[in-house]
């Protein structure tokens, strides 16, 4: 399913069948507004926790936003400078990007020798994307990185 996840999402962002399904899975109303990358991340975090028969530590994308913006109000959310798999990352989109213009990714790996971050993300192209930012390129536009474990 993830291979077809974002098909059709780019033009009519957040309006496709897959995103609506993820919204429902995450407990949001079917037509709720929200960033598709955050909805994708929320669903993947929830699936990960449920696979270990655990409840997610916060209210998915809305809770993740609060986790990062109000770091002192959460027991989780320690700021990270060295990435590890499972960390949540927010990256700028464009030169003048503010928080409303950030893109959410989940780290899947980090290579210390090449300073390469591997990630999975929704809404980077017409499909979900598994990618990497090599040779420290991830540091350029990184807004924040937090642990969600």
Structure summarized in a few sentences:
This protein has 149 residues and is an alpha+beta fold.
What structural category do the secondary elements indicate?
alpha+beta
In the CATH classification, which architecture applies? Answer: Alpha-Beta Complex
Largest sheet: 5 strands, antiparallel
Q: Show unreliable segments.
A: 70-79, 95-99
Word description of this protein:
With 149 residues, the chain is α+β, with helices and mostly antiparallel strands. The chain has one domain (14-146): endopeptidase fold (from Nostoc punctiforme) (Alpha-Beta Complex). 27% of the residues lie in helices and 21% in strands. The chain contains four helices and five strands; from the N terminus they run αααββββαβ. It has helices at residues 17-25, 36-51, 60-69, 137-141, and strands at 88-92, 102-111, 116-121, 129-133, 142-146. It has a five-stranded antiparallel β-sheet with strand order 4-3-2-1-5.
Describe how the helices and strands are arranged:
Blueprint: H1 17-25, H2 36-51, H3 60-69, E1 88-92, E2 102-111, E3 116-121, E4 129-133, H4 137-141, E5 142-146
Antiparallel strand pairs: 1-2, 1-5, 2-3, 3-4
Helix pairs in contact: 1-2
